[in-house]
Structures are given as C-alpha cells and as structure tokens.
C-alpha cells in the first residue's frame, strides 16, 4: 500500500502552478479539487518546484554482473533515483556480456528486486561484443527483459555487413540498434580528442572524423534497409550536421548527447587528471556549442548519461593507463538545467522531452515518459531549480567517485522521485531501502 | 620551481638561469676533481619505466658529481606495467626518503601525475614521458646552441634571440621536438619544423613554430643556424606501425641529412641529434661524423645541464637566482 502524496502549488513542466494528487500508483487528480480527494496524504509544499515525468536514461552502465566493485544494479539504480530517473537502460558490456536471454533476464530481475527504478537491459548486438556474429537478438527481445535496444557500446559495430544485418534483423520486433560510433582503425590507442590540446600533451588523438565517418555510413545503411538507428553519445559539430542532414532526408535516426559533452571540453585534459578521460572524448568549445544548438533545435533527440562508474584503481593512475568514463546519473539534470534552461535555450517541457518522453519512446518503454495527466502512472520527479549545490562524489549514491564535477557548483536539485506512486527519493534523500523494496 | 615537468613551464629567466648554472657546472667539470659536495646526504631516485641507458647514466653521473646518493629503480620488464604500479612505486620511494625522482615513463603525463598526486613529496624531474616532453634534452640542446652560436665571447646571461633552428623528422611522436619548440621559442629563437605531413600532429598550427614539408627548400631559403635531426623509427613505416611513410629509402631521400644537404648549410651552422642515431636513415655517416656535428658534445653537456637542474631544484631553495652565481658556495670536495 503506497501513501498518497498531495503536491501543493507545483509547476508541471514549469508551466503555471497547480495541485497534484498521487494515489494508487497513478496521478489521481490535478487542480483545485485534488485536495478534496486526498486520503491522509503526505503534503508537499511544491511552491517554486518543477514537476517532471520521471527521467528515462537510455545509456547507463550498471556494471553488474562482473564489476560489482565499481557499481551494482542496486547502487546504480539508487543513484538513478537520486538523479530523478524512474527507468534506466543497462548497457550490455557486463561480464558475462548481456548477449543472451539468460543474462538480460538476470539484470532485469536484479533491477526489479532493487526497486529503485525500472531497469531495461540493453542486449549486445554481437556475441561478446566482438563485432563478428549477431547475438540472439530475438531471444533477448522475447525474454522477460523485453529487450528493444541493442548495442555493443564500448565498441563500435564497425563491420558494415554486420551493422546492416543487425539493423535489418531487429525490425522483426521493433528493436533499435544504438551505435557507439568509433572507427576502430582511426582510433587505435586513442587517448583524447585530436586537436591543439592533444598535440601539445603528446596524447594519441581520437579524431572527430572517426565518429562522423561511422555515423555517415550508418544513416545511409539505415536509409537503405529502412531501419531505425540510434546514435549514442554524439560529440562533434560534424556529427550534428550529419544527423541534421539525415533527418532532412527522412531517415529514421535518433541521437543522444551526454551531459558532459554539453559542458566540458578537452582543455580539461591539460592537468592529466584521468577523471576527464572519457569515450568519446571531451571535444572543443566549438563542438560544445554545436551539440547545445543541436539539442535545442531537435536535431539531437535526447540527453543520456553514459554513466560509467570506475573503481579508484582504474582512475588513480597516469592518464594512459586509466579507464574511460565518468559518472553522471546524479548530475545530469543539473547540467541540462545549467546549459540549456538557465541559458534560455530550452523550457522545462523541452527537458521532459529530451530526458523522459523521447528516450522512453526510443526504448519502447510504454509506462514512462508519459504526460502529467490524470490516470497516468505516477512516475515523476520533483525538482528545485533554485538550489545550487557543490558536487561531492563521496556523498553520491553511486558506488564510484569518478565524477568530473567534483567541487563544482551546479544548479538545481532533485527533491523527490516517485516510481508508480511510491517515493524513492524524498526531501532530496533516498528513501529507506526496506520501504522501497517491500512496497 | 619545485619540479621540472615541461619546458612550457619555464620563462626566459628560468631557462637562462638553468643554462648559466650549467655553465658553472661545466667549468667545475674541467677540473681534476670533479665532485662537488653540494647534495651530500640527499637521495636522487632514477625511476625508469622505459629503457634508456644513456639518459639514466647521464642523470646518475650528474647526481653523483653533486655527491647525492643515487638509487636506480628500473620498472621495465617487471610485472608492473599498469598505472597502479606508478602509485605503489612512488609510495615506496617516498618511504625511502627520495628528495628527487627522475622519472622516465612511456605514458605522456606520468611525471605530471606523480608531481600532483601527493604520492611523493620530492622534486619530480621529467626524463621523458611518452610523446609529451623531455625537458632536460631541450635544455642541453639549448645549452649547446648557445655555446656555439650566441657568441662571440662569454655567453653567460644570453638567450637565443634571432637564431633560426630547423627541427627535422618525426615530430608527431617526438617529446624532444615538443620540448624544444617551447624552449627555443621562449629563448627567442625561430623554429621551423620539417617533416612529412604524416609525421606532424594535427594541431601543430597552434605551436610557436613554422612548418615545412620540404627540407631542401628550408635549407636554401631559411639558411638555418642549426639543424636538429630527430630519430625516426623504422617500424613506423609498416602498416602495423602506422604506415607513416612509404619506405626508409624515400624518407632518406626527402628528409635525411647527407653530405649534399650538409653543404647547403651556412658556414657556421651546427648539426644536432638527440641520439641514438639511425645512421643511413635520418642522418648519413658523413653528416654524423662531420666537424659540424656536435652530437658527442651534446652528451657531455647533458651532464652539466642535469647537474644544474638537480642543483637548482634541491639546493637552490628560495633563491635560485643567487644559486646561479658561479662556484663561491660550491667548494670542491677535496
Ligand atoms: Zn559508448
């Protein structure tokens, strides 16, 4: 039995203020009459707070099974709830790989048992992410995990024939291939964005063209076979141009940008601090400007975190030996607010679109990313845009501390999150685990 | 100056002070008893994650001539190859009380990481990191250039204003080139980089140097005062090595320094090479053994420059400028 919650004077999607009643797992009432219907509700003063549909991440590394020392499904999904998420897509590069029905079902069950968010496993495109043989995509689609998104993320499906077959094959169950676009030969040993900074630092370059060449090829393949393509963590100005061109041709492609590519640049590599080592790498200010522009004008469909927790050992070393990746679940919304909302480029309704509605649609997650309307499932998050907070990775819910925002002040804070009417976060803190799991 | 990580961190006063101190050190090295008591009781660790007998011996000689205790730690070939070992090794050296760590590492930035991590409290001297920097090499090159070209007379206190230096070869993979471009620019010299386009980094346009693809044109038009030949690894030719040039023969034809090109240089111009040389590839025997070549002298100057760097970092204290004054406070250890 979940509590009733009466949110007084909240601002759904940042538009106007009203009362919202959550009861029996759904949005039971909106407006002046909501209070009358409430039965012994928890009353939340929502004045100044923005109510959004629960966020949906299309790109999360939960690391379980295999690297429970960096993150578990439990710790990662708790971090997700703290960040305002109600559903995450768990990337396939686990050990063992999520390339069979058995493994994706295991991850799905771990997520269900943890209870913080809905976990939608992503299936590997190829066996062991090796890029050679298609994994049993159909079996994963029909498993209890209901996989719809397939990706070899971390590696690129670089063989054009394998990519073509994958794009074709998943049409049978309305799947999508999410491509990590990285031409492997052009990025052998690559450590950071290839440009002025890499030239000076003597670090092997990861050229923009290695991403753009694959995206260009893939949109043409998707057009040729009439399939749905999703481009992971697009990071360059050229990639934005290619997606814009592809969409103008009517190609069924969607694209994501990460929060870190919206705000950080390759200049940060100058201190050789591996917390800024990520794949694709941080690019230039010009690229940052281009991805913001692309997100604002709809060329880029969504923001996805690419939350990539790593152990201290994997980051506490020289740059070349460090792992790629940074955490992001608990800072994503703040970065989007700071770069897109506070700058006047997007509204909160746009934020709901890029962080909830559209990622849910791409992942075919039917009960998330819904409108804030009576009768809809109460998957919601409540945000205070007026708070500023300093990021302290050790205080985050994620098990790892590789946040690139350590010590940085960011705008906005998640006050509460509800999964089917049950609070997972309240007053900015994760709800007691026993309550979360049992209810 | 607490560490020496990159020549980009040196301003002209720092650089000239190091060169002047090296001059004082070189003067002591002409004496019968070469050893100075300056760093007695201090410990210098040579931490080499990459083989380089020449550089290690140069630092070792420099430290010993200043009476420091030297520990050589070679991490090459042992099981340690990952970054964690850098941390553990550094903590071990810290426990041993290292006053300075001379580090050579295959990863760009490793000395920077060591210096900023808190793993060691000693001074960190970069003895070559990946494709990034090799500052003492650039300093010994500058010292050699100044000795030959900044005269006439006593060169103490002088920089390299007005000199034209051509750096030829594999700039892309070269920490020597990166170190030299910054330092030579700081000292007032004009640098032209000469290489096939494949062996220049994307982004080189931001460097304080001009770029040419044609060695013969540079020799004819620029009349450089010195030419610095970079080592080119033969394996870079193969497909697995990156396929940077078609064949050693073509490389030599277009970018090698031979007797004909040597003759195109101005009368006073000198030839440098950081070593080890690939004779017959980037430099012919004629050029390497000519009277213009100062390659053997570079090795000797390396000891003086490294003595100066160790001295300034470990004994220079807060007043490195005074330390540069010749040998009043550096009595010969009898
Ligand atoms: Zn990826």
In short:
In chain A, strand 13 (229-231), helix 8 and strand 14 (253-257) form a beta-alpha-beta unit.
Measured by DSSP, the beta-strand proportion of chain A falls in 15-25%
Strand order of the largest sheet of chain B: 7-6-5-8-9
Number of strands of chain A: 19
Shape of chain B: globular
Average per-residue pLDDT of chain B, rounded, comes to: 90
Distance linking N and C termini of chain A: 7 Å
**CATH class placement of the largest domain in chain B:** Alpha Beta
- Could you name the CATH class of chain A? Alpha Beta
Provide the CATH architecture of chain A. Answer: Alpha-Beta Barrel
- Largest interface (CB < 8 Å): A-B, 24 and 30 residues
Bound heterogens, unique: zinc ion
Distance between the termini of chain B: 30 Å
CATH superfamily heading of chain A: Metal-dependent hydrolases
Could you list the spans of chain B in which at least 5 consecutive residues all have pLDDT below 50?
A: 318-334
CATH architecture of the largest domain in chain B: 3-Layer(aba) Sandwich
SS summary, helix count of chain A: 13
How many individual domains of chain B? 2
Keywords:
heterodimer, A: 439 residues, alpha/beta, TIM Barrel, nine-stranded mixed beta sheet, five-stranded parallel beta sheet, 13 helices, B: 334 residues, Rossmann fold, 2 domains, four-stranded parallel beta sheet, 12 helices, 9 strands, 38% helix, globular, binds zinc ion
Architecture overview:
The complex is a heterodimer of chains A (439) and B (334). In chain A, 29% of the residues lie in helices and 21% in strands. Chain A is of the alpha/beta class. Chain A has a single domain, classed as Alpha-Beta Barrel (TIM Barrel), CATH 3.20.20. In chain A, the strands form four sheets. In chain A, strands 1, 2, 3, 4, 5, 16, 17, 18 and 19 form a nine-stranded mixed sheet that branches. Chain A is globular and about 65 Å long. Chain A starts with a strand and ends with a helix. The mean pLDDT of chain A is 96. Chain B has two domains: 7-133 and 302-333, Aspartate/ornithine carbamoyltransferase (Rossmann fold); 135-297, 3-Layer(aba) Sandwich (Rossmann fold), CATH 3.40.50.1370. Chain B has twelve helices and nine strands. Chain B has helices at 12-29, 53-65, 83-95, 110-116, 135-149, 175-186, 215-222, 248-255, 259-264, 285-288, 295-314, 320-323; strands at residues 43-48, 69-74, 100-105, 123-129, 164-168, 190-194, 210-212, 226-229, 270-272. In chain B, helix 4 (110-116) links the parallel strand 3 (100-105) and strand 4. In chain B, helix 1 (12-29) crosses helix 11 and helix 5 packs across helix 11. The longest helix of chain B is centred in the last third of the chain and has 20 residues, at 295-314. Chain B is globular and about 55 Å long. The two termini of chain B are 30 Å apart. Chain A binds chain B through residues 191, 194-205, 207, 271-272, 313, 316-322, and chain B through 8, 82-84, 86-87, 105-110, 112-113, 116-117, 129-133, 175, 178, 201-207. Bound molecules: zinc ion. The site of zinc ion has 5 residues of chain A, from loops.
């Amino acid at each position: 039995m979940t509590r009733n919650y009466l949110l007084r004077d909240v601002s759904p999607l940042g538009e106007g203020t009203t009362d919202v009643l959550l009861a029996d797992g759904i949005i039971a009432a909106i407006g002046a009459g909501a209070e009358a219907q409430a039965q012994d509700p928890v009353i939340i003063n929502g004045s100044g707070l923005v109510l959004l549909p629960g966020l949906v991440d299309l790109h999360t590394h939960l690391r379980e099974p295999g690297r429970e020392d960096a993150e578990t499904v439990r710790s990662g999904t708790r971090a997700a709830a703290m960040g305002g998420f109600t559903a995450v897509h768990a990337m396939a590069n686990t050990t063992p790989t999520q390339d069979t029905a058995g493994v994706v079902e295991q991850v799905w069950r771990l997520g269900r048992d943890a209870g913080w968010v809905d976990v939608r496993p992503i299936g590997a495109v190829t066996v062991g992410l090796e890029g050679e043989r298609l994994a049993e995509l159909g079996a994963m689609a029909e498993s209890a995990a209901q996989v719809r998104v397939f990706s070899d993320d971390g590696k690129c499906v670089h063989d054009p024939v394998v990519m073509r077959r994958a794009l074709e094959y998943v049409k049978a169950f309305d799947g999508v291939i999410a491509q990590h676009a990285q031409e492997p030969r052009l990025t052998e040993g690559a450590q950071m964005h290839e440009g002025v900074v890499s030239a000076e630092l003597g670090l092997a370059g990861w050229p923009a063209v290695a991403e753009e060449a694959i995206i260009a090829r893939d949109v043409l393949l998707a057009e040729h076979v009439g399939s749905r393509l999703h481009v992971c963590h697009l990071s360059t100005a050229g990639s934005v141009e290619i997606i814009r061109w592809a969409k103008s041709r009517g190609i069924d492609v969607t694209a994501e940008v990460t929060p870190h590519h919206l705000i950080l640049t390759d200049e940060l590599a100058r201190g050789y601090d591996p917390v800024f080592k990520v794949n694709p790498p941080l690019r230039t200010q010009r690229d940052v400007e281009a991805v913001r522009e692309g997100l604002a004008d709809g060329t880029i469909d969504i923001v996805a975190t690419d939350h990539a927790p790593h152990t201290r050992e994997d980051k506490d070393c020289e740059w070349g030996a460090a792992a790629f990746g940074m955490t992001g679940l608990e800072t994503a919304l703040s970065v989007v607010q700071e770069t897109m909302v506070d700058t006047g480029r997007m509204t909160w309704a746009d934020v709901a679109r890029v962080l909830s509605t559209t990622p849910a649609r791409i992942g075919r997650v039917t009960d998330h990313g819904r409108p804030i309307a009576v009768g809809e499932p109460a998957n919601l998050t409540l945000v205070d845009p007026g708070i500023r907070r300093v990021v302290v990775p050790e205080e985050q819910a994620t098990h790892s501390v590789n946040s690139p925002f350590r010590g940085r002040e960011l705008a906005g804070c998640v006050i509460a999150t509800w999964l089917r009417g049950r609070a997972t976060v309240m007053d900015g803190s994760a709800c007691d685990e026993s309550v979360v799991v049992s209810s | 100056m607490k560490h020496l990580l990159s020549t980009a961190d040196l301003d002209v006063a720092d650089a000239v002070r190091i060169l002047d101190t090296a001059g004082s050190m070189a003067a002591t090295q002409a004496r019968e008893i070469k050893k100075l008591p300056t760093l007695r009781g201090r410990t210098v660790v040579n931490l080499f994650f990459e083989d380089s007998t020449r550089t290690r011996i140069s630092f070792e000689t420099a430290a010993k001539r200043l009476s420091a205790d030297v520990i050589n730690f070679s991490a090459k070939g042992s099981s340690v190859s990952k970054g964690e070992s850098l941390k553990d090794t550094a903590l071990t050296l810290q426990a041993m009380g290292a006053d300075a760590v001379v580090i050579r590492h295959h990863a760009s930035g490793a000395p920077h990481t060591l210096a900023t991590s808190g793993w060691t409290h000693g001074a960190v001297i970069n003895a070559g990191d990946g494709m990034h920097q090799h500052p003492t090499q650039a300093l010994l090159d500058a010292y050699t250039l100044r000795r030959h070209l900044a005269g006439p007379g006593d060169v103490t206190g002088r920089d390299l204003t007005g000199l034209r230096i051509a750096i030829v070869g594999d700039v892309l993979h070269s920490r020597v080139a990166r170190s030299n471009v910054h330092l030579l620019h700081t000292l007032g010299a004009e640098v032209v980089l000469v290489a096939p386009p494949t062996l220049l980094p994307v982004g080189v346009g931001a460097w304080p140097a001009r770029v040419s693809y044609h060695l013969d044109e540079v020799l004819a038009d620029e009349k450089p005062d010195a030419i610095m030949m970079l080592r080119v690894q033969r394996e870079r030719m193969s497909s697995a090595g990156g396929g940077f040039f078609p064949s050693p023969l073509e490389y030599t034809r277009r970018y090698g320094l031979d007797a004909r090109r040597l003759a195109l240089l101005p009368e006073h111009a000198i030839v440098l090479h950081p070593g080890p040389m690939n004779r017959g590839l980037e430099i012919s025997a004629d050029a390497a053994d000519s009277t213009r070549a100062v390659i053997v002298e570079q090795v000797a100057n390396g000891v003086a420059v490294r003595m100066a760097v160790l001295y300034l970092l470990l004994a220079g204290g807060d007043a490195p400028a005074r330390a540069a004054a010749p040998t009043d406070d550096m009595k010969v250890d009898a």
